[in-house]
Structures are given as C-alpha cells and as structure tokens.
Amino acid sequence: MPNIGPIQLPEFPLLLAPMEDVSDPPFRAVCKDNGADLMYSEFISSEGLIRDAMKSRKKLDFTEEERPFGIQIFGGDEEAMGMSARICETVNPDLVDINFGCPVKKVVSKGAGAGVLKDIDLMIRLTEVVVKSTKLPVTVKTRLGWDDQSKNIEEVAERLQDVGIQALTIHGRTRCQLYKGEADWTLIGKIKNNPRIKIPIFGNGDIDSPQKALEYKNRYGVDGIMIGRAAIGYPWIFREIKHFLNTNSSMPAPSLQERVDVCRKHLDRSLEWKGPVVGINEMRRHYTNYLKGLPGIKEFRYKLVTLTSREAIHEVLDQILEHYKDYEFERSPIELINYHEKCPL
User: Fold this and answer.
1) Is 252 helix (H, G, I), strand (E, B) or coil?
2) How far out from the chain centre does Cα 318 lie?
3) What are phi and psi of 225, to 5 degrees?
4) Distances (CA, A) of 118 to 101, 142, 147, 326
5) CA–CA dist 86, 31 (Å, integer)
6) What are the φ and ψ backbone dihedral angles of 297, each rounded to 5 degrees?
7) Which of the residues are catalytic?
8) Exposed, middle or buried by CB within 10 Å (0-12, 13-18, 19+), for 140?
9) Centroid of chain to Cα 66
10) Which of 3, 36, 45 is nearest to 17 (CA)?
11) Residues 11, 26: Cα–Cα separation, whole Å
C-alpha cells in the first residue's frame, strides 16, 4: 500500500489535485462522494498565512469527512515556509504539501511555485525547513523542470526524499509548457523504478479517461494518480476509473438526475461556506460543466447564471429535469481546460 507516513491509502489511490479557485470545500465534497481518496486545499501563500490574510486563512477550512486531507503551501522564503507549516499544523490536517509546480507568472516572479525549479538548492532548503517545522508528513508537488534543457526531476526526487518528504507528485510538464502540449510521463516512470526511491510516486497530467488511467498505471508503475482538470464539472471521473481498474469495463455516463443532484449539493455547500452572495456568484462557473451535452441548454444556463436566490436556482434545476427527462447521456471525452491566469496543478 502506498501509505504516506501513518496515512493509509488504498492500493492505487486517486488524488484530487489542489486547484486555485476550484478545489474549495464545496467542490471537494462532491469529488469525495465520487471516490477521491486524498484531497488538498487550494494552494496557500506562506506569506499570506503569516500576515493572517483572511483569504489565506479561509483556505485552511476543511471538514472531517474530507480526510485524509492535506494543506498545500507555497513560498520562496525559508522562515516564512517554516512558520506557515506550523500554522497549518494548528488546524490538524493529515499532511502538509509543498507547491513547487505552479507556473503562473505572478507566483513564479516571486521565486515561488515553479520558480523554485531554477534553484534546486533553495528547493531542498525550503523543503527541509518545512519537514523540521512540523510533525505532520510532508509531501511535494512539482514538475519535470523549468524547461526542456533542465529536466532535473531525477536528481530532485532523490534529494527531496533525503531531506524527509514522504511522497512526491510529479506533473509531466516543464514550467515553460504551462498546460500546453502533452504531459510526458517517461521521467515519472524512471523515478518510480529508481531503486533508491522508497517513497510513493504519484503521476499527474492529462489523465482524462479510465482507459488512460489504466494504461499509465501499467506503463509507468506509479503508486497512484492525481487528477485535476478532468474532475472539473465531472467528479464522476474517480468512480469511473476505479470501476474500470477493477472490472476492465466502463460505467454508464452519469444520468441527468445524478448531474442535477451534484449541482444541488455543490450549490448548497457553496452557500454554506461562502455565504449567499459569493456562494451563488462563484457557483456560476460550474453549471456549464455539469450540464454539458444537453441540447438547447443555453436558455436554462442563462437563468442559472443570473438568478440570485437558492430557491430560484433549484426551481430551474427542477425544470431541467422535467425538460430533459428522456435524454440519455453518452460518455464523451473530457475537455481539459487550459488555464493561464489560474493555477490548478
């Protein structure tokens, strides 16, 4: 079993990636319902935590039902990273994860996220400080390297293990690729097969179907897979992968009833966590994804993104159920959204 310190995981765990402005508690709840085995907070600025910034502190929120749960921090200052790890420990998550992978310019320009890929010695020092600052297991999420000329992940993996991390997730792109092109898992497989590496290695990047998950599991031998963009609007990806791995057969696509039920739960959780105004506003980005494929949905979608009360939105969802009651979904390829100003890892 690919356990992380005392955290017991299934034989081949599926991890939900920490995604900025996406993987908040309401979204995580519907992913957990559908089989996500390990989840993380949105990435949190170490400097923001130390300043007691409200947005950063809010990201520490999680519920008992989300366990096992990790809080992900980022930053380029050793003292700040150590202090933020101790702050994370006060809310009692199951682990602390370090983000060395976010490619967004505003993060990289501060020498954080993937910006640390330019200075491996700094990466190791930052990691060591965090490991020494908390009793919790520490894990790392990173990329292959800064660019094609500096894919140093093999050296990085060994050195990170040597300073005490207990699992490593690798996104199969360089920082310069952002989310473009195809993720290259070749080096991820090499690290997993390196006899020096004893910690769990999780692969990330472009897993958009159960078939691809099985193929990459077998080809690269990773201990588990982290899924990010494919879960946006489609939390059923986790249960579909698990079913395929166990039976080598595909599940039916989620029904309209299931899609509407998830919409309702996501909306209600969003209102509970964010309040009536922000909760409704931030939920609007999700309706298109949940209801994708329904012919002529534009009119209903317009109502969903303009209404301002929970009751009115639930009424529209009832109308959608009635209008499309005879519609049957087919499992279509998941469209992986390319982020530029966001930073889902």
Assistant:
1) coil
2) 30
3) -130, 135
4) 12, 12, 10, 55
5) 28
6) -80, -10
7) 102
8) buried
9) 13
10) 36
11) 27
Contact 202, 222 (CB under 8 A): yes
Residue type, 213: A
Cα gap 329→50, rounded to integer Å: 48
Written as six digits, the tokens of 199 are 């910690």
Note whether 213 and 294 are within 8 A (CB). Answer: no
Q: How many CA atoms lie within 13 A of 136 on its CB side?
A: 25
If we measure between CA atoms, which residue out of 293, 331, 335 comes closest to residue 208? 335
Q: Point out which residues pair with 140 in neighbouring strands.
A: 98, 168
Rounded to 10°, the helix 25-33/256-274 angle is 150
Q: Classify the C-alpha dihedral 322-325-326-329 as positive or negative.
A: positive
**Position 95, amino acid:** L
Q: Which domains does the chain have, with CATH numbers?
A: 14-247 (3.20.20.70), 256-323 (1.10.1200)
pTM: 0.92
User: d(Cα 331, Cα 329) in Å, to the nearest integer?
Assistant: 7
Distance CA 235, CA 34 (A): 6
Please state, in angstroms and as integers, the Cα–Cα distance from residue 84 to each residue in 102, 115, 130, 132, following that order: 18, 19, 8, 12
From first to last of its 345 residues, what are the pLDDT tens digits of the chain? Answer: 789 999 999 999 999 999 888 999 999 999 999 999 999 999 898 988 988 778 888 899 999 999 999 999 999 899 999 999 999 999 999 999 999 876 666 777 676 776 788 889 999 999 999 999 999 999 999 988 877 677 899 999 999 999 999 999 999 988 666 677 788 999 999 999 999 999 999 999 999 999 999 999 999 999 999 999 899 989 999 999 999 999 999 999 999 999 999 999 999 999 999 999 999 999 998 998 899 889 999 999 999 999 999 999 999 999 999 999 989 887 766 666 654 444 433
Burial class (CB in 10 A: 0-12, 13-18, 19+), 308: exposed
CA-nearest of 13, 178, 187 to 95 is 13
Residues β-bridged to residue 97: 72, 139
Give the residue carrying structure tokens 């209600």.
268
Tokens at residue 65, please?
């039902």
